[in-house]
Fold these 2 entries.
Entry 1:
Amino acid sequence: MAELTYRDAVARGIAQEMERDPDVVFLGEDVAKAGGVFKTTVGLYERFGPLRVRDTPISEQAILGAAMGAAMTGLKPIAEIMFSDFFAVCFDFIANEFPKSRYMTNGQVKVPLVVRTGNGAGSRFGAQHSQSVENWCMMIPGLKVVAPSSPVDVVGLLAASIRDPDPVIFLEHKSLYGTKGEVPDGEILDILGTAKILRPGKDATIVALAMMVPRALAAAERLQAEAGIDCEVIDVRSLVPLDTQTILGSVVKTGRLFTVEENPRLCGWGAEIVSIVADEVFYDLDGPPIRITTPHIPLPAADILEDLVLPNADRIFERVKQSLQG
Amino acid sequence: MKKETRQRPSNGAQASLKNDDIGEEKRLEMFRNQIVIRYGEQRAYDLFLQNLVKGTSHLSLGQEAIAAGFAGAMKPKDLSFCTYRGHAHTLARGVPYEKVLGELMQRDNGLMRGKGGSMHLTSVEHGVMGSYAIIGAHLPIACGAAWRAQYKGDDDVSVCFFGDGTTNIGAFHEALNFAVIWKLPVIFVCENNLYMEYTPIADVTAVPHPAADRASAYGLERILIDGDDDDEVYRTAQKAFARARAGDGPSLIECLTYRHSGHSRADPAKYRPPGELEAWMKKDPVPMYRNRLLQFGVSEETIGGIEASVKKMIDDATEVCKASPMPSAEIITTDVYADGGWAWRN
């Protein structure tokens, strides 16, 4: 067992899988010799060599297209798109090519690849380098969408994503790269489509993803201490496949649902969860499901402004307390 | 339009046919492929008119020699990446016409049981790795397949066919640069049929030859050929395959040709200037190649036999497709994910 940063967990997960399977290859901008602009892939080039860890030009379509062609013909590529905002310049592959090829070819073409990307706000980079695009990906049939919140989950879910036979979008939160957590020694392999109850509770269910998870946990501690409200906090971890059973089970127990989403409000992932809960356990609810989100705006760059728009522990605390106690 | 300057063989041609670099057997194979495509596309067109071919469809009438010439130069393990105008390349790799027509007719016997349609013909077992309907997408994808060959030491080559319109999209340029810097065994084949969809390519492109004139930007040789001459296509392809297999990297080949029909089912091609189609019909690749075979001494009987057998094959396939059931609703939710199903939640 060792303490590892979320950043170092990325390299650990990739290395674990490259060690295990020679078909795993890795490409992206500045990922090899420079070790990644976020230093998430330091040492991989030296360890696995220039044939398996490759720097590319600034050509996001070429990166994703090449990953797909390699995946279709037998490799298990990992492609890095530096910022998830750049999905917009290579969205054809994400929306049209990866997820539809198996279906359109009646199962002939398989696309087992992982697209890793730096997602989310908190770095004061402004509206084109800070977005949370998980909802862009979740809406596309044929993709899997994963977003870990802790170093150990980075390793285990990345390994599961690389071994998965479907295309997986793996969203690393840029503001979590510096966070630390205990990571056991040896091989770590998690399971996609499993949410985790990080804090059991009986009064309300708070469902969160990525950077919203530590904020939800902090809010839950304050709610317990200051308001006597005992919250259950669930880390969704994987939007597709979605572990609805864990969420539904929790809501049946607590009677209240709060989602905490970093993505802008319209069509955020929480809306889908609220819809499922309303459809399936409506009569177990003791109050309206509530979504806590970033407002429907482009993100401002200034720290003071960005901090005002992202959901944080104070906002979660206030919203839950007000809703349960008035 | 490139002038016809080919030398016609005269006396003694028959002897040289068997012994030249292409040979009679290969020429007959390529001729048969041209006939399969020509008759097959004509049948598809006829079946549109009867509303038996559904959705859209993009024919390769007039562009047969490119598909036949490249397929003739391929080894079985080489990979084809096509556009939505992909019937010809799919057939040229030996995919049964019945499976192609079945897909065009959206029947259960189609290549993809009706789940893909005309624009996405794919037959992995024949090396046809897909037909891509978003312009430019398959150039980077072909690079990836070539990267796999390079990484694993496989000696197959990926061939990517696309139209002139593709040369103005970003993915074209990203893929060319990428293929060159990684020295990938990939061949980019531009079928310049003069029109992107309805607009002449020359009206919207900075250079006269949309692919060939861009080659120098990527350090590649400028290759511009008569795409209606099957032998020229075959010989050019051979050189590109040799280069790719030797580890010398990609080639970009612009094949001049002409689309006899409109862009798609919906297009009567009224934008053509008067006389243009007629001029190109004079160098229609199929009769041109037929005449060459005759001049080379292949008998009318042999050629007629090929034509008759293909016609019968197409007729038989048409009947099979007409009799084939429509796809059943149960396949709607299959093969979304690798587990065979479509479940996104538990």
Note: The longest helix of chain A spans residues 212-227.
Entry 2:
Amino acid sequence: MIEFTLWDILRNLLLATRWTALLSLVAFAGGASVGVLILVLRISSRPALHTFAKGYIVLFQGTPLLMQLFLMFFGLPALGLRIEPWTAAALGLTFFASAYLAEIWRSGVDAMPRGQWDAGASLGLSQVQQLRLVILPQAFVITRAPMVGFLVQLIKSTALTSIIGFPELLRTANAINNATFEPFKVYGFVALIFFALCYPLTRYARRLQARDRRLA
Amino acid sequence: MDAPAFGWLQAATGAILSGAAMTLTLIAVTTVAGTLISILAAAGQRSGVGWLAAAITGYVELIRNTPFLVQLFFIYFGLPGIGIRLDPLAAAILAMTLNMAAYTTEIVGAGLDAVSPGQREAARALGLRPAQVFIRVVLPQALKIIFPALTSQIVIMMLESAVVSQIAVPELTFEADMLQARTFRAFETYFVVTLVYLGLSIGVRRALIWVGRRTLAVDGA
């Protein structure tokens, strides 16, 4: 048996943290891109598009993320696509994030006074331009606090991808634990590393929220 | 690629139902225990006792900034390292309750802060003791205010509980894992079970709104 010093354990966990961070960023960026699309459908006046987006959001917010990951991991190969844990994790978290971000931004769009659209229209902007140039930039700004809050949730959610075999922080911890039999230390460190990633963001979200409240 | 097949479903109904029943039991126990703890914790945060408030805030922040799955593994795999051994069901209930309580402490606390101080003063003026003021006057009003947020948190926790399958608690996801190993129909199995979860989350939300309307006269939602 190989001897693991405390530093060996911590070093390997910190190396794996890179994957947790990378997956969080990819899922947030991907989720933002798909999320804007879902948002546009959600606020569309066409009933079919509107209903589709609503159903999409209910589906992703009303089922466990673990099931969504399993469906990606087992479902895509059934469609004939070869899939690695990395792709299933990134795609699964992207769709998951898109539903939440679309819903967060919709609350921002809803908070815009009617006059903002009208002012855009009176400048001769088309409906799409009003949304792109007037409404969305402001909606993004006023929803920064819940967006950062969701990023914290997303970082924590990456731990679930260990179950489908993506070698992020928790999966690496399971492997180290199997070699060292020191679960208290190993999982304790994992919790502390996640805390170090998430707590500053939680603080930042709270600061943003306090600022928004002062301005409101 | 073969076409999706659901022939296994009929024989699997019992397993799916028993898994769903376990999922509902877990969330029911967690909701009751978690809410009770969070009422004490939120009151403790506002007690004016410095060390107590700091300890509760530390617990809330620690739980809210780490993944539930890590908390579960720490409790189930990590605690035996210091001599605390729990069976899977006890570990799952403990992890879910501690997690739930951290989130609902924030929610209950916000509700307590939202009850106007005049209510407390009026109740005191009527001669109620401080404990009576809290239980009979402040708490019911706070619960009414936070009921929608509490409902959302309960549904979120129920969906998160899918990961306790990883320590072999025979709830819905665990039954799905067993089924797909038997049927080799992973996609179809998880598809059906995902729909069951969707039904559960819609059903639990509706049931809670109904209960809220009946017992606390919560309106809307």
Note: Chain A has nine helices and no strands.
